[in-house]
Amino acid sequence: MRGLRLGKEGGGKTKRVVSGMRPTGRLHIGHYFGALQNWVRLQNHPEYDCFYFIADWHALTSDYADTSAVAQNTIEIVTDYLAAGLDPQKSVLFQQSQVPEHAELHLLLSMVTPLGWLERVPTYKEALENVKDKDLHNYGFLGYPCLQTADIVIYSEEGIALFVPVGEDQVSHVELSREIVRRFNGFYEVRLNAAMLLDSKNAEIAEAVRNKYVVDPNSAYSFGSPISSEEIPIAESHIRSVIHQVGLENFLETENKLAVFIVVNRVLEEPQVMLTQTPRIPGLDGRKMSKSYGNAIALSESDDDIRKKTKVMVTDPARKRRTDPGNPDVCPVYDWHKLFSSQETLDWAAQGCRTAGIGCIECKAKMADHLIQWIAPVRERRIEYEKHPARVLEIIDAGSKKARTIAQQTMGRVREAVFGWEKKRKEISGDTAANAD
Ligand code: SF4
């Protein structure tokens, strides 16, 4: 049996979701609507095993010079996960650095990933140009996509499809992960069945393999001898390079006679995109919501702060006076109404805005009422966990242990595929036995 069948044994789950966040501080409502809401929905879906982690190594790619906040931020994020409704009985909640196999797989993936693929990542180039307060000219930042790929595919398990929930803007990251995995698998998952090829019954095909993949791919005539055991690695290497170009399935289709001699040992699953539609949730100032812009409402925000902050929220910029009719469709306050308010309030706001029947101050106050109502149970759960940080630690430790069990099984397969030590040890112990005889 491969892997700890968390899902399969527990109820026939055939899909696995892996996602994480960097520990940069307390989470805000943008994180909730951008990811957590969907994570909670998935953990309650009968088909999905869910793995959600805190990417503390990723925090170091930019914050390596000052790590003083990483540990506390990790606790804060898990507390926010739990407050938002993630349930450690349903989801595996874990910390990346407690599963060192992520780092080992990252190393091996980094060996096969061409430098150009990493240098061309648009977010890498953008960050180098725009981030001025941190030095990003380090290997870790460049290699970020390799670690990100390892974070996901370390949870590969035969028969379980791997998904990464992402928005439109992150699809290319998953595509790059797929490319890296395909390249890795291309090197290590395909082998020729040497015993079958060396069997005299298969001399004809063994000769054809030799002609095409050892001697001369364009050769039309036979050289009259089947492949030798020394030539098999040469043929394997050529076959793999063809597979790199055309893909395994296409190769097996065109080389159908050879298919029975090919052993495919699936090592890592290619992750798939799970496109997630998220509602628009601009920040208080209308820009993208971000803690660093100071325009967010944290999941732990007090009622007073919610009222203070929303009072100065930007509105339809064209509505300058109370008597000007406004347009709710371009107003961030109305975007927030859509998330927190009842249909009745939504109608009241839209109608009152368009006819100048209400002022922005009362519109914002009503939205704040609904937001406070919505956030109250989340905050209550948070306060409970804040009182018991040791409980939060236990949850992280237990989740990390579960995650690690699967990661170790994957690394067992990966190491064998790359180095073949198990095979080598068997060969040696076989020889020793033979010598002893
Ligand atoms: S009335 Fe409400 S929806 Fe209209 S501009 Fe003011 S805050 Fe925005």
How many helical elements?
20
Mean pLDDT: 90
Q: Specify the biggest β-sheet.
A: 5 strands, parallel
What is the tally of beta strands?
A: 7
| Unreliable residue runs | 1-10, 433-437
The SS-based structural class is alpha/beta
Bound molecules: iron/sulfur cluster
Query: What is the H-and-E element order?
Result: HEHEHHEHHHHHEHEHHHHEEHHHHHH
Instruction: For the largest sheet, list the strands in their spatial order.
Output: 3-2-1-4-7
Distance between the terminal alpha carbons, to the nearest Å? 34 Å
Radius of gyration: 28 Å
- Overall spatial form: elongated
Query: Helicity range of the residues?
Result: 55-70%
Proportion of residues in β-strands? 5-15%
Walkthrough of the structure:
57% of the residues lie in helices and 8% in strands. It contains 20 helices and seven strands. The strands form two sheets. A five-stranded parallel beta sheet has the order 3-2-1-4-7, with helices on both faces. Strands 5-6 form a two-stranded antiparallel sheet. Helix 2 (29-43) links the parallel strand 1 and strand 2 (48-54). Helix 5 crosses helix 9, helix 15 packs antiparallel against helix 18 (360-387) and helix 16 crosses helix 18 (360-387). The radius of gyration is 28 Å and the shape is elongated. Bound molecules: iron/sulfur cluster (SF4). Residues 315-316, 319, 326, 328, 331, 333-334, 349, 353, 358, 360, 363-364 line the site of iron/sulfur cluster.
